[in-house]
Design a protein that fits this description.
The chain has 11 helices and 16 strands. It is of the alpha+beta class. It has a domain of about 325 residues: Penicillin V Acylase, Chain A (4-Layer Sandwich), CATH 3.60.60. A 6-stranded antiparallel sheet has the order 12-1-2-14-15-16. The protein has a 6-stranded antiparallel sheet with strand order 7-8-9-10-11-13, covered by helices on one side. The longest helix is centred in the C-terminal third of the chain and has 35 residues. The protein starts with 9 loop residues before the first strand and ends in a 12-residue tail after the last helix.
Length: about 475
Amino acid sequence: MDYTTHSTCTTILVGKNASYDGSTIIARNEDAGVAVNPKKFVVVQPEDQPRNYQSKLSKFSIKLPDNPVRYTSVPDATPEKGIWGEAGVNAHNVAMSATETITTNPRILGADPLVKNGLGEEDLLTITLPYIKSAKAGVERVGSLLEKYGTYESNGIIFSDVNDIWYMETAGGHHWVAQRIPDDSYVIAPNQTGIQEIDFDDPDHFMYASDLKNFVEQHHLNLSDNFNFRKIFGSDTQLDHHYNTPRAWYGQRYFNPETVKDKSPMSHDLSFICHANRKITIEDIKFVLSSHYQDTPYDPFTPGNDSQKMPFRPIGFNRNQELSVIQLRPYVPSDYSAIQWLAFAANPSNTLVPFFTNVQDTPDCYRDTTKIVDSQNAYWENRLISLIAADHYHAVMDDIEAYQDQLMGYGHKRITHIDNKVEGLSGSKLTASLQAANEKTADHVVKATRKLLTTMLTKTSNGVAGSFDRKHY
């Protein structure tokens, strides 16, 4: 079985007192094992939710409850390898992002082996999000599933509501822990076990597998006096130093450089819970999740650098498939407080688009992605742009940055406009108005993206290898 198709994500979590507007914000790049893995953005209605769920890869199956609610999802374009729903918001304004693939050390895998036919990233959003009414309830549901069925991989799983963000990490086949992210804090999680000290006497901030302490004691897994989940369950390998920790280092360097000034990109002791030196914006999150070590010697796009020989894996790169930044706002009515900012394909060259989630359907240019290239579709437009940008970075980045700035400004303007337009509406009238507004937003963005693609093709086509200019002869 191939479980590596989606395995290399980067997560940012921002508590409500750390964000610019008091929202809880969760964000995660979905990165595939290949450059092209088409994605779509959909609404799943209760009548379309499976009652007897069967995974494609691990053959895990489960009978699901009979009371699902509507939710958004960003699944694969076609389901032959499973759903891979990844990120969404349900009708109760609970958000989920799954998963951040993480690492577990051999001692843990020996004591609690992974379960070949257990659950995994392919399944988690579908079998969880439609059934939970709070972020904490999401941890409780997944925790019970893990202890009963086991998992075939180690993952970080994110839940949020308007008040709380919970980050959950699995270890081995059946064990897990979850931490509530403090309101004044942020987290960057880069494919590596992150949670550190566990306070077993603080149920408001920590949850864990029922036998976690006994399991660790029985198998002699704790090598220190403190219960540090990362040190007990995680790994600290050469791959971590080159593939994982540099991403956390760069993000922390951006948000609070004073704390990492004496640390290297390969530092094994970077903090999990961090505090920025300012309030964090949507643009900040997008910058970090698009970054490739700008203004450091490790940027593959610096003239003279060989991108194939750079020592560290970038955050924004060709294998980004979609980025969902989910913002749950406390200062507007709950019926239109949830926004799923969405970007497709490689983050250095795309832009976030805000979609209200209390809708019955999504715009067709985001919903109807196929595996065949379609220049009218948002995923494929952005995939084509990313391909051109990779080979002509310095020639087209001015055009891309102008496009990004213009559309991020447009996105914020649209949110304010839509908030004002729907004020006082409720029920089906509100839902219909939000859906129509999403359609207008998507139409504007797709037209602007198509214009950028045309500009880039025109600018770069004349200088390709094999071109010939008669005036030189």
